[in-house]
From TrEMBL:
It catalyses: D-fructose 6-phosphate + L-glutamine = D-glucosamine 6-phosphate + L-glutamate. This is Glutamine--fructose-6-phosphate aminotransferase [isomerizing]. It comes from Arthrobacter ginkgonis. Keywords: Aminotransferase, Cytoplasm, Glutamine amidotransferase, Repeat, Transferase. Residues 42-181, 214-359 form the SIS domain. Homodimer. It comes from the Bacteria. The lineage of its organism: Bacteria, Bacillati, Actinomycetota, Actinomycetes, Micrococcales. It is found in: Cytoplasm. The keyword Repeat applies.
Length: 369
């Protein structure tokens, strides 16, 4: 059942092209019009929402953080992303104009379920993005958008994450379509770019050996830092989480812009730092800012491990190691850039002799607080 792979985690990493493709399947017609009929929520009501709150834990919350960039950009609706267990115990402002989007692979995470119940009580509309048919959170929500990643067995989430990002993007595009924020041609173009993601993920997987070799050479690493900006920031957090949970290595992800506000003090000789570099074709000159960050940490002795877009030659001079991902629009980059970080963690944990599918102290569904 592991499909010839040594672990479920490795299998599930390799399942990601179909996890994304299956999540996209049947959600738009030939003209590029989204038809999320399964949502069971009145489109007119949905078009009226004034605020979105995304609730989730762990990896699913990082998918939510990625979604914020896309949904705000496309729909011009404010999106807050909050950990379910933090949301529950403050006094959040939720009303009938709020759409609460929960993201949960299992659909059983107690904190997220309780947060959804609380939001419902406050009169919010609740929409669940979930990978498990008929599980509790989608059953208790007003609407559901299933990710079609297939069952995820390994404790560490991989293919569900890519499918969650894909599903939130479909939701964002659907809202933009309902509200008229984007022209139909724009939506069609973005859907076409999303449609190319599975083949691009496959391209990354086909070059997994590059990153595996790096991982095996870093078996003795005591701490690994990850930095990114914009959508690369949650990718950095996710890369760090994967390494903590299966390789038991101290890892921290942070926003590259925060370096000077503290984290740069951590850098000394030989400190490995992964840097997720935005596309040089993107807006806001973020690329050059991140390249400066690479130079800054390198000047202080860091071992710089870079994930960049194909054709980005500017990073080569400052990187100990570069992994190139195929070109894609900036907002879609997390669907590619996360994959080498998953492979890195999986291979490093394997090299250390750990059971990557069953990391210590962790359970697949966290059904207790
Ligand atoms: C990390 C991981 C966890 C889950 C989190 C939420 O690899 O698997 O952080 O993402 O426990 O679980 P779900 O998505 O089932 O609510």
């Amino acid at each position: 059942e592991k499909g010839g792979y040594p672990s479920f985690m490795e299998k599930e990493i390799n399942d990601q092209p179909s996890a994304v493709a299956d999540t996209l399947l049947g959600r738009a017609d030939a003209a590029g019009k989204l038809t999320l009929d399964e949502l069971r929520i009145d489109p007119e009501e949905l078009a009226q929402v004034s605020k979105i709150i995304v609730l989730a834990c762990g990896t699913s919350a990082y998918a939510g953080q990625v979604a914020k960039y896309a949904i705000e950009h496309w729909c011009r609706i404010p999106v807050e992303v909050e950990l379910s267990h933090e949301f529950r115990y403050r006094d959040p402002i939720v009303d009938a104009g709020t759409l609460v989007v929960s993201i949960s692979q299992s659909g059983e995470t107690m904190d997220t379920l309780m947060a959804v119940r609380y939001a419902k009580e406050q009169g919010a509309k609740t929409l669940s993005i979930c990978n498990t048919n008929g599980s509790t959170i989608p059953r208790e929500s007003d609407a559901v958008l299933y990710t079609h990643a297939g069952p995820e067995i390994a404790v560490a989430s991989t293919k569900a994450f890519l499918a969650q990002i894909t599903a939130t993007y479909l939701l964002g595009l659907y809202l933009a379509q309902l509200r008229g924020n984007l022209f139909s041609g724009q939506i069609k173009d973005i859907l076409a770019d999303l449609g190319k993601i599975p083949a691009k993920v496959q391209d990354v997987l086909d070059r997994a050996d590059q990153i595996k070799e790096l991982a095996r050479s870093m078996e003795d690493a005591e701490s690994v830092l990850f930095l990114g900006r914009h959508v690369g920031y949650p990718v950095a957090m996710e890369g760090a989480l994967k390494l903590k949970e299966i390789a038991y290595i101290h890892a921290e992800g942070f926003a590259a812009g925060e370096l000077k506000h503290g984290p740069i003090a951590l850098i000394d000789d030989g400190q490995p730092v992964f840097v997720v570099v935005p596309s040089p074709r993107g807006r806001h000159s973020l690329h050059s800012k991140v390249v400066s960050n690479i130079q800054e940490v390198r000047a202080r002795g860091a071992k710089t491990l870079v994930v960049a877009e194909e054709g980005d030659e500017a990073v080569r001079d400052y990187a100990e190691f570069v992994f190139y991902v195929p070109e894609t629009p900036t907002l879609l980059m997390p669907l590619l850039a996360t994959v080498p970080l998953q492979i890195f963690a999986c291979e490093l944990a394997t090299a250390k002799g750990y059971d990557v599918d069953q990391p210590r102290n962790l359970a697949k569904s966290v059904t207790v607080e």
